[in-house]
Amino acid sequence: MFKFIAAITTVLASIGAVASSPAPGAQTAAAAGPTGFNITSLGIIGSGCPPGSAYYQLSTDLSAVTITFSKYFAQAGPGIAIGENRKNCQMTLGVRVPPGFTFGVANIDYRGYYQLDKKVTAAQQAIYYFQGNVQQATARSTITGPVDGAYYTYRDSFDLVSTVLAPCGADTVLNIASDIRTNNAQNKAGSGYISTDSTDASLKQIYNFQWKKC
Questions:
Q1: β-strand 137-144 against 121-130: which pairing, if any?
Q2: I want to staple 129 with a disulfide (CB 3.0 to 4.6 A). Which of 28, 39, 136, 170 is the partner?
Q3: 34 preceded by cis ω (within 30°)?
């Protein structure tokens, strides 16, 4: 189920974080979702995801949603405008949850590319929450150069996933706020670049669900 996505909204704030390091190779698969679960709509807006530059796919076993980007990158260095140091993408997913079930987002699998001079950093962060729920879960990772150009695949786990759950058996809206950034404050002559995009079919973000009976 592929759909091109164009507009709308989400808001965010951060509490807590869990960091991880790049880890190549296959990741443990998430548990399959229950019959009746579906994503009914998806809105997206941000400096890293202009209209027509991203699409999503719900996995056939309903365990995850994959969002693929074509213009989601950040860069820093001499001659590069400060506005290019950080890009963001805010997503809202309309979700149909079958009776007797609830879910949260257990982790996110990042796939992309980075190149960093010595002491230049690149960071990715994602925050999720459900509409009407004041609690939020955060995943964050930071990479420090030197890295001489590399594709990456790694997984971040969300904090508070055990408490940031959808309403039991009720349709809801899942909000995800994602950003990537680069920083050369420790090496003003150095440059850095990070992307999460679809230059290659393997470059994407995968949000893995955690299901519970309620």
A1: antiparallel
A2: 136
A3: no
Residue type present at position 155 = R
SS3 per-residue string spanning the chain: CEEECCCCCCCCCCCCCCCCCCCCCCCCCCCCCCCCCEEEEEEEECCCCCCCCEEEEECCCCCEEEEEECCCEEEECCCCCHHHCEEEEEEEEEEECCCCEEEEEEEEEEEEEEEECCCCEEEEEEEEEECCCCCCEEEEEEEECCEEEEEEEEEEECCCCCCCCCCCCCCEEEEEEEEEEEECCCCCCCCEEEECCCCCCCCCEEEEEEEEEC
Residue 115's DSSP bridge partners are 193
Amino acid at the residue 13: A
Kindly state the tokens that stand for 32.
């399959």
The CA-atom distances, in angstroms, between 134 and each of 11, 17, 22, 78, 102 are 12, 16, 31, 40, 17
Top pLDDT among 139 and 30 is at 139
Residue 170 and residue 25 in contact, taking contact as beta carbons nearer than 8 Å = no
Residue 6 has pLDDT above 50, yes or no: no
Nearest to 39 by CA among 3, 89, 10: 3
Gap between the Cα atoms of 72 and 69, Å rounded: 6
Question: Taking residues 95-119, what's their average pLDDT?
Answer: 91
Query: For the CA atoms of the chain, what is the radius of gyration?
Result: 17
Tokens describing residue 182: 């680069």
Average pLDDT over residues 172-176: 94
